[in-house]
Design brief:
Elements: E1 24-26, E2 32-34, H1 52-62, H2 64-86, H3 117-153, H4 155-169, H5 173-183, H6 191-202, H7 204-217, H8 221-228, H9 233-244, H10 246-269, H11 281-288, H12 297-323
Antiparallel strand pairs: 1-2
Helix pairs in contact: 1-12, 2-3, 2-12, 3-4, 3-6, 3-7, 3-10, 3-11, 3-12, 4-7, 6-10, 7-10, 8-9, 10-11, 10-12, 11-12
């Protein structure tokens, strides 16, 4: 029997849509649908795998101030280490211009003896950078080893090493160097000797930071897994814990560089550091202090170099701290 029930009127297309969209089609069940094209655009999402090093570099490059400071610091280091070889005057050369202000011939002027101040600043920056880098390398190595042993083994090893660290912390660096300058006069003005003594006194801060980091990391699940698989203590420390503490170590190493430069400058200023005929930035400031009002170039140019070095190192340390921080949200890793 045929179906005589009235059918609903067909839906009308919206006004103005005729010919613009897909046409209505009636299915075999009386349902009207739009005809959809069989092909559609497919979007492919590709996830690029980044290593830990790439993520750290990406975060550091996002810190514009740290990147700019790194460029300035590298330029200062390069110019201080090799610039003196290409400058027309040596730091000990005596010219026929006495106490002349800055000019094209002498960009930083000359002193009352006729020394070119630019050549002396280059030499002073070279000595300061050498001392700072030596202190940073030795102090970081000693502090990382002692802090790692104390934090990993705990117990009596931790107590003995940390009490020794506290003992070294109580020793004033300037007093030690003053005594050594009076007793070991032949080595007192040697930058290597000064850097060695400062490194033996500056490792304590890094040791305490590394110890705290190891105390936290040694309780993590990946350390328990490595220990359960039979990994030795040395393997756990150097392959699992030390890479995770690299961020804290590097940041404190940059701080050590700035502190070493300031201490060396203070020692030279007090006459306990590098001595004439060699020179350093602190020694230049000390000798130019008396002429700060009459010949300011002798005082302010060495001081400006010290400020630039200290500020750039601090900004680099800030950038490294953000780069090694996995919770940093400034840049998506």
């Amino acid at each position: 029997m045929a179906d005589t029930r009235p059918r609903p009127p067909a839906a009308q297309a919206p006004a103005g849509s005729a010919g613009d969209g897909p046409e209505l089609q009636t299915t075999e069940h009386g349902v009207q649908v739009h005809e959809v094209a069989e092909t559609s655009t497919e979007r492919e999402f590709t996830v690029v795998r980044r290593s830990q090093t790439q993520m750290i570099i990406r975060r550091f490059m996002a810190h514009k101030l740290a990147v700019g400071s790194l460029i300035v610091f590298v330029l200062v280091v390069i110019v201080s280490l090799v610039g003196g070889r290409f400058w027309k005057y040596g730091y000990a050369d005596i010219t026929d211009e006495f106490s002349s202000p800055p000019s094209l011939e002498h960009p930083m002027g000359t002193d009352d003896i006729g020394h070119d101040s630019f050549a002396q600043v280059l030499r002073g920056a070279q000595k300061s950078v050498q001392v700072a880098l030596m202190v940073a390398i030795l102090a970081t190595t000693i502090g990382a080893v002692i802090g790692a042993l104390a934090g990993y083994y705990r117990g009596w090893i931790d107590s003995a090493l940390m009490r020794f660290t506290d003992l070294v912390l109580t020793i004033p660096s300037i007093a030690i160097l003053a005594v050594l300058a009076a007793t070991v006069t032949e080595q007192a003005g040697n930058w290597f000797f000064i850097g060695l003594v400062l490194a033996l006194l500056q490792w304590t801060y890094i040791a305490r930071v590394v110890r705290g980091t190891f105390l936290s990391l040694r309780e993590k699940e990946f350390v328990e897994a490595a220990r359960a698989l039979g990994a030795s203590d040395a393997r756990i420390m150097f392959r699992h814990l030390l890479p995770n503490a690299t961020g804290s170590i590097i940041v404190n190493a940059t701080i050590t560089v700035a502190v070493a430069i300031l201490i060396e400058t203070a020692l030279s200023y007090l006459g306990l550091g590098i001595r004439p005929p060699d020179t350093s930035l602190g020694l230049l400031i000390s000798t130019g202090q008396q002429a700060a009002t009459t010949r300011p170039w002798l005082f302010y140019f060495p001081g400006l170099i010290i400020v630039i070095i200290a500020l750039t190192i601090n900004f680099i340390g800030d950038g490294l701290r953000d780069a090694f921080d996995p919770t940093q949200t400034r840049v998506r890793a």
